[in-house]
Amino acid sequence: MRLQAIETAGFITREERLVLAPTGGGPLPRLENLCTLLPLGLSLAPNFRINGRDRVVPMVTEEASVVAGASRIAVLLRSGEGLRATAGERLLGGQVLWAWQGSWQDLAALTEPRQGELLERLNGLHPSLVGAGGGLRSFCWRAGPEAGLQVLDLVAHTGDAMGAHLLDRLAAELAGELLRFLPGRPVTSIVSNRPLGRSARAEARVSLELLGRCGREGAQVGADIETLCGWALGDASRWPTHLKGALNGAFAVLRAFGQDDRAVAAALLSTAQVEAPALLPRWRVQDGELVGQLAMPLAVGVVGVGLEAPPGSILARLAGVVKASDLEELVVAVGLAQNLAALQTLVTEGIVKGHGELHARRGRGQGES
Ligand code: MEV
Question: Are 215 and 209 in contact (CB under 8 A)?
Answer without folding.
Answer: no
